[in-house]
Amino acid sequence: MELKFKEVDEITIVKLDAPELNHVVSHDFQRQIAPLFDEKKFNIALDMGNVDFMDSMGIGTLITLRNKLMKEKGTIAMFSLSDRVKKIIDIAALHKIFSIYDSENEAVEGLKQQLLS
Questions:
Q1: pLDDT exceeds 90 at position 109
Q2: Which domains does the chain have, with CATH numbers?
Q3: Which residues, 6+ apart, have CB-to-CB distance to 23 below 8 Å?
Q4: DSSP letter string over the chain?
Q5: Are the C-beta atoms of residues 90 and 54 closer than 8 Å to each other?
Q6: What range(s) does the STAS domain occupy (predicted)?
């Protein structure tokens, strides 16, 4: 898995370039995300457009990332979810702890609003 990063205002967009967020790629995901904490980039929008499946390890990885960001007073959102991933998010009740958006633009605007409040 390769993550691609870009900055939009004070939000870091992280594009997941893998069809699955699972036990095989979770460690690699965490390793590639770690430098953002060193750089004090605590506001992240995950582009899930390429992801079609998540297992329990992938879900745990996202929850761990969220918890780390919250400790730093950061924010996290996801956008461009496939229908299959939306179902997984609903079943795991992740929509209660993650902001979910349809597009990058909506995610950036939503996170910017969270930062203001």
A1: yes
A2: 3-116 (3.30.750.24)
A3: 55, 57, 58
A4: --EEEEEETTEEEEEE-SSEESTTTHHHHHHHHHHHHHTT--EEEEE-TT--EE-HHHHHHHHHHHHHHHHTT-EEEEES--HHHHHHHHHTTGGGTSEEESSHHHHHHHHHHHHH-
A5: no
A6: 20-111
Given a cut of 90, whether residue 42 has pLDDT beyond it is yes
Provide the terminal-to-terminal Cα distance of the chain, rounded to the nearest Å.
34
Any idea how long the chain is? 117
Given a contact cutoff of 8 angstroms between Cβ atoms, the answer to whether 107 and 45 are in contact is: yes
Find the largest Cα–Cα distance for the chain.
37
- Tell me how far apart the alpha carbons of residues 15 and 12 are, in angstroms, rounded to a whole number: 10
- Contact residues for 105 (Cβ-Cβ < 8 A; gap 6+): none
For the full predicted model, state whether its pTM sits above 0.85.
yes
Take residue 67 and report the two structure tokens written for it: 């918890």
